[in-house]
TrEMBL record:
GO terms for molecular function: 3-oxoacyl-[acyl-carrier-protein] reductase (NADPH) activity; NAD binding; quinone binding. This is 3-oxoacyl-[acyl-carrier-protein] reductase. Catalyzes the NADPH-dependent reduction of beta-ketoacyl-ACP substrates to beta-hydroxyacyl-ACP products, the first reductive step in the elongation cycle of fatty acid biosynthesis. Homotetramer. SMART domains: PKS_KR (SM00822). Keywords: Fatty acid biosynthesis, Fatty acid metabolism, Lipid biosynthesis, Lipid metabolism, NADP, Oxidoreductase.
Length: 248
């Protein structure tokens, strides 16, 4: 019996990267997995098969997480397909970096829509189901830059700060219904995006981390398992920074 056996997790933006790592870790702990991505292409189908190989039910759903109506429809489909939604991980996210004076309205709006509005969309759609089930766990993927800001990422930092405040607010509203809401704030994580950075930039970042290394996607996935499972049954409205001590 895994920590999440018998539960269904819905994870947004999970065809690759951190979202995929969370889906695979949840599957190892026995959860059935529904995940979304903008399109479910060959990569998405491969992720679906990889999750199913863990011995659980898995299905990818094509959805623009920033679209309210599409989100309502996808959540309805997931409920019909899986029977319940016990865990929601709001992981969908993009970056469109730029200094404030050069940032366009489109860059601002796109990041806020995908990173923050999408979480509102999915929480709004899933909470009624969780209320009827008398419980659930919501996990918002934030970032350390949502805690302390970052030059050149005003849109991204604002969206991630919003994810933290959203989790705290939902935790306060939904606590009496047995629904917990928390946020994970990753630091410098080794992904395809960070590996593409120039070596001098990587060294500069790592030099600021007390553990003197970047994290990996499994570090985030392990934290997500804790927040999704009954191990954290008395934890709500919290922000767990998984950053090697970078932001103490």
């Amino acid at each position: 019996m895994g920590l999440l056996t018998g539960k269904t997790a819905l994870i947004t933006g999970a065809a690759r990267g951190i979202g995929k790592a969370i889906a695979l870790k949840f599957a190892e702990e026995g959860a059935n997995i529904a995940f979304t991505d903008l399109v479910i292409d060959e990569n998405g189908k491969a992720t679906e098969a990889e999750i199913a190989a863990k011995g659980v039910k898995a299905k990818g759903f094509a959805s623009n997480a920033a679209d309210f109506a599409q989100t309502e429809e996808v959540v309805k489909q997931v409920k019909e397909e899986f029977g319940s939604i016990d865990i929601l991980v709001n992981n969908a996210g993009i970056t469109k970096d730029g200094l404030m004076l050069r940032m366009t309205e489109q860059q601002w709006d796109a990041v806020i829509a995908v990173n923050l509005k999408s979480a509102f969309n999915f929480i709004h759609a899933c909470v009624p189901l969780m209320m009827r089930q008398r419980g659930g766990s919501i996990i918002n993927m934030a970032s350390v830059v949502g805690v302390h800001g970052n030059a050149g990422q005003a849109n991204y930092a604002a969206s991630k700060a919003g994810m933290i405040a959203l989790a705290k607010s939902v935790g306060q509203e939904m606590g009496p219904k047995g629904i917990r809401a928390n946020a994970i704030a990753p630091g410098f994580i080794d992904t395809a995006m960070t590996q593409a950075l120039p070596e001098d930039i990587r060294k500069e970042w790592i030099g600021k981390i007390p553990l003197r290394r970047g994290g990996n996607v499994e570090d985030i996935a392990n934290t997500a398992v804790y927040l999704a499972s009954d191990m954290s049954s008395y934890v709500s409205g919290q922000v767990i920074q998984v950053d090697g001590g970078m932001n103490m």
